[in-house]
Structures are given as structure tokens and as C-alpha cells.
Amino acid sequence: MPYILVLCFVFSALVATQALLFLTEKQMVTSYQHYMQASLLIEKSKKEWWRQFERGDDKRAGTYHYDSGTVSYTQKATNSDYDEVVIIAKLNTDTVVNHRFFIKRLYVEEEVE
């Protein structure tokens, strides 16, 4: 009788561990899907931002709206001759992904004294 009780306990611990691993894996897959979706929105917005930049639009900040979320960007001048562009994607599922890159300005404004 005690052997059957120990065997049942071991079996139930194994089932509980497998269930916990399954739930954890399911949550990780969902999080990864949200991250990939936000990354795709960032890439799509980055292409649109480059098109605007090449046309000569001087907008330093803006937002793109998509069905699955919004992407906002800001362009700031740094101390050197580079501008920093920060793109933030926020999905409807409250997933937020940031992307940052630098672009070199073709001309640097000289300070007039």
C-alpha cells in the first residue's frame, strides 16, 4: 500500500511539472509573437520614415497608426554631427518595443558668435 501511495505522488508531481512547463512555454511563445509583430511594425515605419526623410520632410516627431498598434518616432540632434532617431512601437496588447539609430547630418550648422 505505501508503494502505491508513493508511486501516485511521483506521478502527480510529474504531471504537475509538465503542466507548468507547458504553460510557461505557451506564455513565452505569445510574448515572442508580440515582440515579432512590434518589430515588423518598426521596420515598416522605418521605411516610411526614410521615404519622408529623403523627400526632405523636417518633421522631428510623428506617429504612424496601424491596425495592430501605433509607432511613434522622434529625431533629436546630438552633440556631434549626428541625429538620433528613436522609434517606439506600442501594440494594442500593451507590448512596447524600442529601436534607436543614428544618422549623419550632411551639413553641421556652425555656431555664430
Textual characterization of the structure:
The chain has one helix at residues 2-55; strands at residues 61-66, 69-77, 82-91, 96-104. The chain has 113 residues and is α+β, with helices and mostly antiparallel strands. It has a four-stranded antiparallel beta sheet with strand order 1-2-3-4. Strand 3 and strand 4 form a beta hairpin. It is rod-shaped and about 85 Å long. The N and C termini lie far apart (95 Å).
Lateral arrangement of strands in the main beta sheet: 1-2-3-4
Helical proportion?
40-55%
Residue-averaged pLDDT: 89
| Total of helices | 1
Helix/strand order, N-terminal first: HEEEE
In short:
The chain is of the alpha+beta class and 113 residues long. The chain has one helix at 2-55; strands spanning 61-66, 69-77, 82-91, 96-104. Strand 1 and strand 2 form a beta hairpin.
Which secondary structure elements does this structure contain, and how are they paired or packed?
Layout: H1 2-55, E1 61-66, E2 69-77, E3 82-91, E4 96-104
Antiparallel strand pairs: 1-2, 2-3, 3-4
Features:
single chain; 113 residues; alpha+beta; 48% helix
